[in-house]
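user:
I keep going back and forth on a fold encoding question. Separate attempts, laid side by side, tell us more than any discussion would. Would you put together a sequence-and-structure record for a protein of your own picking? Write it directly below this note and I will take it from there.

assistant:
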Amino acid sequence: MTATSARPTVSEREARQVAEAAREQDWRKPSFAKELFLGRFRLDLIHPHPMPDGEDVRRGEEFLTKLRDFCETRVDGALIEREARIPDEVINGLKELGALGMKIDPKYGGLGLTQVYYNKALALAGTASPAIGALLSAHQSIGVPQPLKLFGTQAQKEAFLPRLARTDISAFLLTEPDVGSDPARLATTAVPDGDAYVLDGVKLWTTNGVIADLLVVMARVPASEGHKGGITAFVVEASSDGVTVENRNAFMGLRGLENGVTRFHRVRVPAANRIGPEGAGLKIALTTLNTGRLSLPAMCVGSGKWCLKIAREWSGVREQWGRPIARHEAVGSKIAFIAATTFALEAVVDLASQMADEDRNDIRIEAALAKLYGSEMGCLMADELVQIRGGRGFETADSLAARGERAVPAEQLLRDLRINRIFEGSTEIMHLLIAREAVDAHLSVAGDLIDPDKSLQDKARAGAKAGGFYARWLPKLVAGPGQLPGSYGEFHPTGHPDLSTHLRFVERTARKLARSTFYAMSRWQGRMETKQGFLGRIVDIGAELFAMSATCVRAELLRSTGDHGREAYQLADAFCRQARIRVEELFGRLWTNTDELDRKVVSGVLGGAYTWLEDGIVDPSGDGPWIADATPGPPTKPNTHRPIR
C-alpha cells in the first residue's frame, strides 16, 4: 500500500465541510473584532482597559522574578544554539521552577498563572532562548494540559495534570507528511478494540515529540456500530509499545527545538484516554488554539523589546559622517518603526490576554489577529534590526565574539522568528480562517442564496432573510461617530498627542471595510471564497484597526495610572500614523491589483510555459520524493525518543 492509497480521498467541498463542522459556530459572547469587521466600532468592549486582579498580579510578578533569575544565571542561549539542544539540567530546572505548570490549576500542582502572566513569562524565557519559549509554549498552549483543562474528564485531570505540572513534557500531534491545514485527509487511524483503540499512522513536525512523555494525538476513528467515528483526540503515553520517534528534524532556526517524526504501530490506547467524544478532535484543537495562539505573538513582543534595546544601544554608538547612525533619517525611521510596533504588539497581546482571563468576550478572532499580526511584524522588526546592524547583523554572534566584538545574535533572531509565519496556522491559513469568521454574519443570512446547490425555494427564503438583515444593517454604515470632531475626546488630554483622531479614523474605516466586504459578496457571491488575495487584504486592514484600537486604549491606561503616559501617547500616535498609511495602501489594493493576471501566470508556470526561464542554473537539491512515505506499519528506523534525565 502506498502513502497515497492509505490516505482518505476527499473532494474540495468535502474538505471544506470537515473544516466548517469543526468551527465554533455560535457567538454566545460579544467580540470586539467581529463587530469591527461588521462596521461597528464597539470601543466599550475594550475601554476602559480590563485590569487583572491584585492577587493574580502578585503571584505573576513573583514568578517572573524567579524566572528572570533562572534565565540570567542558568540559561546559556549561545550554547543551546551551538549544540542544537536544551541541556537536560536546564529543562529539569524549569520543572523545579514550576514552569511546566504555569497554566495548570494549583490543585493539580500547577502555578495557576493568568493568561497575561503566562504570556509575559513566555516573552521573557523566549529572549533567553527561543527554543525554551517554544518548548514551554508547545507543552502548555497546544499540548495536553490545555485540551484537558477545557474538555477532559475529572479522572483525566487527576491522572495527568499533576504529572504535566511538574515532571512530564507534552506534545501535540496533528500534522502528517501529506496533511497540514487540510485535516479531512488525515490518515492516522484509531480503531476501536474492546476497551481500547489501536493507533496506526505517522505524524510530522511533532514539537517536543522527541523528549515528550505525554502526547495529544489526533486520529481518525472509523465509523462502526456503536462508534460515531471521525477525527478524535487521545492522550497517549510516549513510552507505549509501538511509539517510535523516527527522526529529529533540524531547521533554519530554533535549533534547540526537539521536533521529530513519530510513528504509531498498533499502539493500544485505553478508551479512558480519549478526550471528548468521537469526532470532536478538530473542534477541541481549534478551541484550544483560541487562547493558545496568543503564545506566539507574546514571544514576538519579547523579540521586539530586544530589537529595540539593541537598535538603541548600537545606533547611538556607531557613527557615520560625523554623527550616530540613529540621527540619520534612513536609520531613524527603522528605529521608530521598531519602537512603535513593539508598543502596539504588547498592547494587542495584553488586551487579548486580559480579555481571555475575564472570559466575558469571545476572543477567537482577536487571538487569531494577534497571531497573524505578531508573526508578520515580528519578522519585519528582526529584519530591520539586521539592516541597522549592517554587516554585523548578518554575522553570527560566535563570529563577532571571536574577533572581539559584542556577541549580538541578530541573524539568529531573524532565523528563529521566521517559523512564526508558518506554524500554528500559516499567514495564508490565518487570512482564510479570520476571513471566514469575519463574513460569518453574511453567510448566516445569505449562505443559501449564494450556494449553487440550493433549490430555488431555498434561495427565495434566503433572499427574504438577507433582505431584512441588510435593510437594517446597511444604513448604519453611512455615518457614525468617526465623522464628529469631538468624538472620543477623552483620548486627547491636555499636553498629549491627539489619539482621538485615530479612533475616529478606526470607526470610519471599519464602516468602509464592512461596505467593501458587502460589495465583494454582492459581486462574487459563491466565488468569494476563491478571492484569497482580496480576503487577505480585508483581514490585514482589520488587523491594523484592531492594533490601533488596542494601542490607543493602552496609552490611555498608562496615562491614567501615571505610568509613562506621555511617552505611551507618543508611541501610540507614531504607530497609528504608520498604520494608517498601511491601511490606505491596502484599501487601494483591494480593487487595484494583479490578482487576475497572477492567476494566469500561475497557470502558465504549472503548464510548463516558462520552463525556459529556469535555464542556466544548477539545482543543489538532493534526490528523493517531495513527500515522504507515511504508510502505516512497523518502524523502519531506530527510536530517537530521548526522555529527560
Notes: The CA atoms of residues 243 and 264 lie 5 Å apart. The chain is about 55% helix and 10% strand.
